[in-house]
Amino acid sequence: MSTPLEQQVVSVLSQNREDSFATQRKRGYVLAGVARSLHERFGLQKWANVGAKHVAFIVETWKSDDAGRRSIEEKLSHLRWLVRKIGKANLLPKSNKELGIEAGPRHTRAGKTISSDTLARMLADVKDDRIRAMILLARYTGLRFREAALFRPWRDWDGSRIWVKRGTKGGRPRYLWPHNSRQVEALDRARLLARGEEGLVPPACRTFDEWRQHVYRELRAAGIGRATDRTFHDLRRTYIVERMRFLVTEKGMDPPRAAALVSREVGHHRLEILRWYLAEGDIVAAA
To answer: Which of 56, 143, 166, 271 measures 20 to 30 Å from 244, CA to CA?
Structure first.
């Protein structure tokens, strides 16, 4: 029989389905385990009664299990999601380092950026206009794959401010201001192709997942993927690196302030994540 805490987790999850099904499943599994542990150790009946000592107990349990730093990071991301949903975000610090957890190994592609020539070849090799529009949104506004597909330029761009609301990680909306003409051109192209609530997902596709599978097939056919050492996510990484360098070298902004701004623009709630995008030795890698 499930505990009261587990039942409350199910309720919160059912009301917040902003992420992929795979992420929701993993989140449910992790949080159910947290709920059982807190009920067994402290007899807790309500998440409203969770405090700092309870969170510390869970973190120490994960550390003692020695599942690997990367595993703990993933579990913490789900726990952070929950404490935000129940209005207790301050129970966890923004940095895992404050919890005694150093960044674990990641299959990172730090420094893997897309040159202008490579971008031109990618656009030439991809035949679908909607996919080309997604590529340009990722390159010039830093949108993730899902965000680019679901972006609604008629509703989420008013000509000055870009809102990113659909497909974001953790369901956290954000905004950014265009700062060059290439961004506006990418947004204009998307606006010509997008349809209302569907964004760049065509009416023929019944679900986002159906569109996702189609797009990845087309990208692989065009030679875009890990096999050719150029991925869709590298476009977002290119925007981040370029934006950081612009703010630091041309605008004269100090690296920590620039990193905070770019993190907000691209939807990273922790600066540690931003650093994983930057190559070792980059001017802002230590921001």
So the answer is: 166
- Which helix (DSSP H) or strand (DSSP E) does residue 235 occupy? helix 232-245
Domain range spanning residue 192?
A: 116-275
Question: 174: helix, coil or strand?
Answer: strand
| Residue 250: CA count within 13 A, CB half-sphere | 7
Q: Which residues pair with 163 in a beta bridge?
A: 175
Q: Are residues 95 and 126 in the same domain?
A: no
**Which stretches of 132-276 are assigned E, i.e. beta strand?**
162-164, 174-176
Summarised one tens digit per residue, pLDDT across range 47-69 is: 999 999 999 999 889 888 765 55
Whether residue 107 lies inside any domain: the answer is no
Residues 238, 114: Cα–Cα separation, whole Å? 6
On whether both 83 and 149 belong to a single domain, the answer is no
Which residues are CB-contacts of 110 (< 8 A; sequence separation ≥ 6)?
276, 277, 278, 279, 280
**CB contact at 8 A, 76 and 269:** no
**Are 143 and 151 within 8 A, CB to CB?**
yes
Chain segment 74-109, per-residue pLDDT in tens = 888 899 989 999 999 899 887 777 887 766 555 567
Cα end-to-end span (Å), the chain:
48
Helical packing angle, 129-141 and 232-245, nearest 10° = 30
In angstroms, rounded to a whole number, what is the distance separating the alpha carbons of residues 91 and 281?
A: 34
Tell me how crowded residue 275 is: count the other CB atoms within 10 A of its CB. 20
**How many Cβ atoms from other residues are within 10 Å of residue 22's Cβ?**
8
Q: Rounded mean pLDDT of the chain?
A: 87
Of 240, 250, 225, 229, nearest to 277 by C-alpha is 240
What the block records as the tokens of 72 is 């703990």
CATH number of residue 209's parent domain? 1.10.443.10
- Look at the pTM and tell me if it is higher than 0.85: no
